Amino acid sequence: MKKIQLLLAAILAVMMTSCVKFKTEATVDVEVTKDGKAVSGVVVYKFKDNGLGEGSTLYKSNNSGSETTDGSGVAHFELKSPDDLDPSDIAGVENTDQATFFFCTYDAEGTRNGIVSAQVKTGDKKTLKLIMQDVESGDPF
Fold first, then answer.
1. What is the DSSP letter of 138?
2. Which of 1, 20, 24, 76 is the most buried (most CB within 10 A)?
């Protein structure tokens, strides 16, 4: 009896994974600038809005991914299913998902010094501009 249950569980798992295609659903390039110049080597953190809005971005430890800017100041994010967006193809049925994402930079003390947000849906290829600013002590930015 245990062998039959195990076999049925394995068959069910194979069927479910073959019905959902996990892949890149959208891409976002974040161009980071400071004082009008591209900044390379900066870590940009990605946050998916979980209902708290930009409040979840106050601490970089809440991030759901990060990328470092290249020589031209661009951090490239591939939003994948199922972590970022719902799969676009479930059992042959097309699906479109949309979510709000925040992309942030932080200074050496962990204070957010740049933020940009965007609504991203399945199939999008977006380019966002994030401007880093100097943060003074006590500045609510």
1. T
2. 20
Strands, sheet with 112-121, edge to edge from the N-terminal-most edge strand: 65-68, 43-48, 98-106, 112-121
β pairing state of 24-34 and 125-131: parallel
Mean pLDDT estimate for the chain: 83
pLDDT band, very low/low/confident/very high, at 8 (cuts 50, 70, 90): low
Q: How far is CA 118 from CA 6, 10, 34, 53, 93, in A?
A: 44, 40, 20, 12, 26
Measured CA to CA, the distance from residue 121 to residue 101 in angstroms comes to 10
Which 8-state DSSP code applies to residue 86? -
Cα dist. 117→8, 12, 46, 92 in Å? 44, 39, 10, 31
DSSP 119: E
Measured CA angle at 110 (ends 119, 113), to 5 deg? 50
Alpha-helix residue ranges (DSSP H) falling in the chain: 2-19
Q: 48 near 64, Cβ under 8 Å?
A: yes
pTM of the model: 0.76
